[in-house]
Amino acid sequence: MADARDSPAGGIGVSELLAVLDGSGLRLASRPSSLRLPLTSPTLFDPLSVSPGPHAGILLGIGVHPTDADSPRIVRDAARRGFGAVIVKSLGLSVDTLAAVADAEGVALLVVDDELDWRQVDTLVNSALASASEADNSLSATPVGDLFALANAIAAMIGGATAIEDLQTHILAYSTVPGQIIDADRREGILGRRVPDLPENAAQYAAVFRAPGAVRVPGLTPGLDRLAVAVRAGAQPLGSIWVVDAAGDLDADAERALERAADMAALHLLRARSTADLARQQRAELLRRLLEGGDDSRLLASQLGLDPAGPFVVLAFQPELAPTGDEIRLLRLIDLIAIQCEAHQPGSECVVIGTTIYALFGGQAGSAPAEVEAVAERVVARSGSAFGITVRAAVGSSMLTLGGISRSRQDADLVLLLVGGRPGGGRVASARDARSQLTLLELAQVFRDTPRLVSPVARRIRELDAGTGTEYARTVRTYLDCSRDSAVTADLLSVHQNTLRYRLRRARELFGVDLGNPDDTLTLWLSLRVAEFD
């Protein structure tokens, strides 16, 4: 049986694959060859589960270390099982030994940049193979990376003015084929390089990204109809393509052509994103480490181009999103936050940690928390009106040194807790306005970590309340909060003053509460007060 690698018909040559993915971080480590690869998805290397039988195409050597004694055997076995190429990471080491094995076995050894995630590598290669397999010849001839040329090719092929957008509805490119009809929405989008905000946008984009293929989108008079398709790399959404259907005559052939064009557009968008994404990921990782604190804060600040003189302040956003299915809205929210922060201070940095989005401001912006609060208010208002996302925001403490950045982040996190637990309160809060509550929050943690600090009387009161449903703890704490003013306390508790006096007398009888001892009273009040933050 002929080896799949030797088949001259169909497939894609290694040199062609490298040309398509030029600039993506993939390079050839073995000798150049005329080897052709079948248009099948890459196979993931799994040392614990090697499936029997012949294979073909590309093996992603995940976990294959360039200097491990077993790695040459892995490359050799891959070649003998029918793979035409193996992709590995060099990890900053020489891959000459693996390249020599690949040359001897007649396969290609490709090396990808260490910084690229293997999922991104798989997506890039899959898009390149899909483009070679399905894309129309007129589109395949379009230089990868030239989105305007691609938009013109799609417009000429399908017969309607075309726009290519990213997930944040920025118009990345648009066609300029003479004679094609456009409407006011298209004209406004081109001038602003962004889709106009319209009430029908949310429903239309949801329909496009839910559909497996092209979708017909009716225009609202005087707007024209559109033919639209989501651009994806595998299951990952990248953007969308919109074609004006001025005469309403774009048929099923046009739909299929647009779906093929989406495959090619995915490759263009991935290529356009790869370099920018890598740089952004690197800066995000630097900021993440800076927010977490450590001895290398000065080095991290230098790499980020931050002035170490400060002051610094951290702004934190926490959106209320579903655990899954809200990825696109989250991306749009992150884009909104980045734009607003950049407008307030050019060069400001943002990063997502867990479910929280952080921004760091320094210098003059770091010394004006009130202005940072205004940025937060704009983001919260805009995210609700434009995306329907409820967002809470918190401004950390202003810190004078690089070492204080992690403290500002911690304060912002604590304020987010306060905002979340405050019914009917605003969506934006600041550490400077919640200093006493922040102190109590930290004291609550100290009391949890050191139980012996808790007043024994407070512990007994809370245990009885929990078991019987009484309210001695709330009564005593409110009485002390109100500086022992019986009238104010009774009003807050919505009880008669005689009821209040009875409860206080019973507290003395049951628990030995002595409100005449200032030391005991202080520890009792603190224990009851910080318990609320549990």
UniProtKB/TrEMBL annotation:
Signal peptide: none annotated. Residues 298-416 form the CdaR GGDEF-like domain. Residues 473-530 form the PucR C-terminal helix-turn-helix domain. InterPro entries: CdaR-like_regulators, CdaR_GGDEF, PucR_C-HTH_dom, PucR_C-HTH_sf. Pfam families: GGDEF_2, HTH_30. Belongs to the CdaR family. This is PucR family transcriptional regulator. It comes from Cryobacterium mannosilyticum.
